[in-house]
Specification:
Layout: H1 2-29, H2 63-66, H3 84-100, H4 105-128, H5 142-151, H6 175-183, H7 191-201, H8 216-229
Helix pairs in contact: 7-8
Catalytic activity: ATP + H2O = ADP + phosphate + H(+)
Keywords: ATP-binding, Coiled coil, Helicase, Hydrolase, mRNA processing, Nucleotide-binding
EC number: 3.6.4.13
Length: 236
Amino acid sequence: NGTEDEEGRQKIREEKDKSKELHAIKERYLGGVKKRRRTRHLNDRKFVFEWDASEDTSIDYNPLYKERHQVQLLGRGFIAGIDLKQQKREQSRFYGDLMEKRRTLEEKEQEEARLRKLRKKEAKQRWDDRHWSQKKLDEMTDRDWRIFREDYSITTKGGKIPNPIRSWKDSSLPPHILEVIDKCGYKEPTPIQRQAIPIGLQNRDIIGVAETGSGKTAAFLIPLLVWITTLPKIDR
């Protein structure tokens, strides 16, 4: 019988663990023949990679320590220093196993619907937590724009400031202007250009501060050229 064989193997493993635990206790408290550790000299440059087997705490034969109890806190309590999402998953698994034994069929169906809703919410959260470079322009949130400005060290002051441009193709510049920019070799806008151009396209006053060679002239001229192209032609 497969069940009896498994129980027999489990019993043998438990007896071996008890024997090893008893041997470890005797060595710890009654003493025993210990392998003398190699003494390191101060001028010895050779690194010693070996360690004493008694210092290995990764394996414990006592079931009390081998099968660690997971702390279950009341209410919304969490353990500091451990990932909150991981704690939520473990708590949800613990209470889920506990309630599974007490539920009726109708309650189980309700729980499955709740879990589907929770998985959908977590999937949406993971989707929203993507880096801004993986999102489309219309998917950007206020948090994404804040991270974008921090990535490019863009600091602004004022009211109703438009969002910076992520790339030339995301900007609202006319195609012929974009073509000239590409021919000039400007593959990506600089930080001052990312923020100053959208403000300039709104015909608003701006004071931009950036280091030499950061593209301030182009940040001023590009909105000016766009404005000039909107003026009516003068026929002479």
